[in-house]
């Protein structure tokens, strides 16, 4: 891949847009409640061995779809939507996305075709990117559950409704180049969904479920990332989908999608062959109730980190097209109680590729199947003896009336015990109270970020769990690392 370096700022290269906001005085009260009792260690208590230095990393920013400045959430819609309505929408997206992943498992293992809810395709975050020479700017959805990079493209037969920008115009770019029939980009297209007619361009169709697709031309183009301080760099010859026909809904304000999964067509996979980059990326998500002054950060390349907690990334041998970030969970604890869940419950099925558990930044909540969900909920109720109440947003997660909480109230952590890279004692991924509870739609009610899904899975550790964790996806060494930190 050819690399074009336009301009780099000294030291860290600071790139494009992103904010995550769900602030209200009610949420602040909720955070104040959660600051008592057990919880995340303070900055002074966090070991210095987990501090992160990013002197040699390219840094970008993500904007959450519910942020008032996000094109994906029109100002009028955001201003008239309550916190309860936004949480309800996040819960629906989480369920739809989990269902989408489950149906992809069935499709890959040849168990039948499927029809997937389209809102499951996109994640909660978007990033600004410019395409072409001279650059044309777009806002793209970020998705760790898929691989293709694509944007709306002219001539547009059916593009995303209410996109942020006009479709990309290849005729106005001097660096645009269509893939030929013999190019690896055409012959090796994900799921082999590409074709050539005579000497014409390489056509593609990429499905996110039956009837939910992007299709158009496989092409190469320069992608430019611009910093808040105006510095920028461009990577040439990025393989992308010049999308001319999108049968997708639920993406207002979005111009395309950037896949971050493990396939060869994902953005990090392509950047890994560019000078100055390796096959590693990292992000630090602010909590669901972050403030407008804070940003969720995304890092390209190799961060200089002293993070020492890692777990291996696994592949789904039965369903190889599922390029999700699978990890092996050895057990789950609530507080100090290790739950009685069968040791093999979190394994990927060797028969049909179902099950397993993944890290996914695009799913809001944490999705568990049957036995695991029931065990977590039962033990949480044992330790958190507040009345269960109906939530005010119509979601299916469990909520508690905490009006009688005091300064001594203990809010249990939930801990995922994961296999260590050394094969020794498991390592712990801890959900602190702000990861365990949704920001309250009302001061005296707290709702769990854990929801139940049906088999075949996979189960999901979502972005509410990952918030205030520095997450490092080290694909060179096939491992995921993390450190508890403050992302705000």
Automatic annotation (TrEMBL):
<dbReference type="Pfam" id="PF14543">
    <property type="entry name" value="TAXi_N"/>
</dbReference>
<keyword id="KW-0064">Aspartyl protease</keyword>
<keyword id="KW-0325">Glycoprotein</keyword>
<dbReference type="InterPro" id="IPR032799">
    <property type="entry name" value="TAXi_C"/>
</dbReference>
<feature type="domain" description="Peptidase A1">
    <location>
        <begin position="125"/>
        <end position="483"/>
    </location>
</feature>
<comment type="similarity">
    <text>Belongs to the peptidase A1 family.</text>
</comment>
<keyword id="KW-0732">Signal</keyword>
<dbReference type="InterPro" id="IPR034161">
    <property type="entry name" value="Pepsin-like_plant"/>
</dbReference>
<feature type="signal peptide">
    <location>
        <begin position="1"/>
        <end position="30"/>
    </location>
</feature>
<protein>
    <recommendedName>
        <fullName>Peptidase A1 domain-containing protein</fullName>
    </recommendedName>
</protein>
<keyword id="KW-0645">Protease</keyword>
<dbReference type="InterPro" id="IPR032861">
    <property type="entry name" value="TAXi_N"/>
</dbReference>
<keyword id="KW-0378">Hydrolase</keyword>
<dbReference type="InterPro" id="IPR033121">
    <property type="entry name" value="PEPTIDASE_A1"/>
</dbReference>
<dbReference type="InterPro" id="IPR021109">
    <property type="entry name" value="Peptidase_aspartic_dom_sf"/>
</dbReference>
<dbReference type="InterPro" id="IPR001461">
    <property type="entry name" value="Aspartic_peptidase_A1"/>
</dbReference>
<dbReference type="InterPro" id="IPR051708">
    <property type="entry name" value="Plant_Aspart_Prot_A1"/>
</dbReference>
<dbReference type="Pfam" id="PF14541">
    <property type="entry name" value="TAXi_C"/>
</dbReference>
């Amino acid at each position: 891949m050819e690399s074009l370096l336009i301009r780099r700022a000294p030291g860290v290269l600071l790139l494009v847009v992103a904010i995550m906001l769900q602030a209200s005085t009610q949420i602040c009260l909720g955070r104040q409640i959660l600051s008592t009792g057990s919880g995340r260690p303070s900055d002074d208590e966090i070991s210095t061995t987990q501090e992160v230095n990013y002197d040699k990393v390219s840094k970008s920013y993500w904007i959450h779809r519910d942020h008032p400045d996000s094109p994906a959430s029109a100002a009028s819609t955001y201003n008239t939507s309550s916190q309860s309505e936004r949480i309800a929408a996040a819960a629906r997206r989480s369920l739809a996305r989990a269902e989408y992943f489950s149906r992809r498992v069935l499709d890959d293992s040849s168990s039948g075709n499927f029809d997937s809810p389209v809102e499951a395709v996109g994640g909660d975050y978007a990033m600004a990117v410019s395409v072409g020479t001279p650059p044309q700017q777009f806002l793209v959805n970020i998705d760790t559950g898929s691989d293709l990079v694509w944007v709306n493209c002219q001539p547009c037969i059916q593009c995303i409704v209410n996109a942020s920008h006009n479709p990309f115009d290849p005729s106005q770019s001097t660096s645009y180049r269509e893939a030929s029939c013999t190019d690896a980009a055409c012959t090796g297209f994900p799921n082999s969904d590409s074709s050539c007619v005579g000497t014409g361009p390489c056509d593609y169709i990429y499905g996110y479920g039956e009837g939910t697709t992007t299709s158009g031309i496989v092409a190469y183009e320069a992608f430019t990332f611009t910093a808040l301080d105006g510095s920028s760099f461009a990577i040439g010859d990025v393989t992308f989908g010049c999308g001319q026909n999108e049968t997708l809904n639920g993406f207002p304000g979005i111009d395309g999608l950037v896949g971050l999964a493990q396939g060869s067509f994902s953005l990090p996979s392509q950047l890994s062959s560019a000078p100055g980059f390796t096959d590693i990326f990292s992000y630090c998500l602010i909590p669901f109730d972050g403030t407008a002054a804070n940003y969720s950060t995304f890092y390209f390349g190799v961060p200089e980190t002293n993070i020492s907690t890692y777990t291996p990334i696994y592949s789904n041998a039965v369903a190889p097209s599922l390029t999700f970030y699978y990890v092996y969970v050895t057990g789950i604890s609530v507080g100090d109680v290790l739950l009685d869940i069968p040791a093999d419950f979190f394994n990927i099925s060797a028969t049909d590729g179902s099950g397993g558990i993944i890290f996914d930044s695009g799913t809001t909540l944490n999705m568990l199947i049957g036995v695991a969900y029931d065990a977590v909920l039962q033990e949480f109720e044992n330790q958190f003896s507040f009345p269960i109440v109906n939530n005010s947003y119509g979601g299916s997660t469990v909520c508690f009336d905490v009006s009688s909480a005091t300064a001594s109230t203990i809010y249990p952590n939930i801990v995922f015990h994961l296999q260590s890279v050394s094969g020794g004692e498991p390592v712990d991924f801890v959900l602190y109270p702000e990861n365990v509870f949704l920001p309250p739609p009302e001061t005296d009610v707290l709702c769990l970020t854990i929801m139940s899904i049906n088999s075949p899975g996979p189960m999901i550790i979502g972005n509410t769990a990952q918030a205030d964790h520095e997450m490092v996806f080290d694909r060179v060494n096939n491992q995921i690392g993390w450190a508890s930190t403050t992302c705000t």
